[in-house]
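Subject: for your reference before the review

Hello V.,

The reviewers asked for a structural picture of the protein, and I figured it would be easier to keep everything in one thread rather than splitting it across files. Below is the amino acid sequence we used in the manuscript, unchanged from the supplementary table.
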Amino acid sequence: MSSPTGVQGITEADIANYLANTPAFFERHAELLSSIQLSSPHGTRAVSLQERQMDLLREKHKGLEQKIMEMIRHGQENVAIADRLHRYTRALMLTADAADLPEVVVRELKQQFLIPQAGIRVWGAAAEQPVSQADREFAREVSADAKTFASSLTLPYCGANVGFEAAGWLEDSTTVASLAMIPLRHGATTDAFGLLVLGSPDATRFAADMGTEFLMRIGEIASAGLSRLIRAA
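And here is what came back from the structure prediction:
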């Protein structure tokens, strides 16, 4: 069967382009809006072009609502994190005795960020501490290998607990599945003067592919506060 004159060769794309570029078409043929029947996406019944358009608009509106709710949720989470970071920083600033700072860092990180286990070593000042302070946990002996490892970290380490020495600084290292180790230093090119270690029984809490920017901020704040301890040495 041959095509009518002038219709042969017209494709669906041609028709779609014509309708998209000729909005007045449905103004001139308004009856088509109600007479054209389409399959409903929600059943087997036929719906008019107008009804189908309303369905599309409702679906689009629902998608936008979901995106807005997701943005609100992320915003609330960011505010909560900023508030915890503020309390952590404030606690360090209000610590009068520099020798108390390592314990404050560990305590506040556990409380504010719900970290199951945390530990810290500061070797930059340990040798100069009075005997009473040298007995503190943060000043305990650290191997040369652990110090070298800390200085080699340009970013916090996140991953499985595979027997690192720093895991032994935690309360119960046998239950720790993942670790985050954050070097403490005054600048990116200087050797570390300490190491902060966070541990969790959840293997995914500190995963190797997680972002480390927030952990870096935690380390920078701790390093800045602990600089008082280093200067005092």
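For the response letter, the relevant points are probably these. The radius of gyration is 32 Å. The first helix runs from residue 12 to 21.

Happy to draft the paragraph if you're swamped.

O.
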